[in-house]
Amino acid sequence: MLTVNEIFHSIQGESTYTGEPCVFVRLTACDLRCSWCDTPYAFYEGRKIALDDVMTQVEAYECPLVEITGGEPLLQEDVYPLMERLLRAGHTVLLETGGHLDTGKVPAAVGKIVDIKCPASGEADKQHWGNIDRLLPHDQVKFVIQNEVDYQYARDVVSRHGLAKRCAAVLFSPVHGVLDPKVLSAWVLRDRLPARVQLQVHKYIWGPDVRGV
Ligand code: SF4
Fold it and tell me: Ligand 1: which residue has its CA nearest to atom 1?
């Protein structure tokens, strides 16, 4: 049984899978409160759904790519059997996690997208740094960047941990409507940083405040 906020079919707006059709399973609840969080409705809203029914809803979209997100999906123990079942059904499975909970039980075949929280989020001190050692070549790391202090923090973490060599992509995402992507891009180019600047494409397709897309 999982507490689910929403299950929907959309275009993947982030990561190296940007632009691909994807089914999103958004689980309810998060124990962080990032200052720029764009899914606060997932903190409490949701209903309990049996795993079989989650699978039925996902399969109805006939889509090979599935992302489990939140909220913080690793707060619910049944997320692990869900990942196993999706993998067994032949899906490419992505997991978006806030980075503060241990990813050690996530199946190796799942593509983890692990956040590293920067200072302006207000949650940087919660980071579970051991997750960096668990990154696999197909995983990705994401920094949401609000200002230059965040950028410098992210740049130093990328360099200190050699992140570009540990995973498929280091994603730098400007806080939508706050940090101009041109400014972030100029910083990345200036510092010759091995990072991928990404925009949240779904917000450009459907608008920044539209849910379920
Ligand atoms: S970890 Fe994600 S869901 Fe939780 S507060 Fe931060 S951005 Fe929002």
Answer: 98
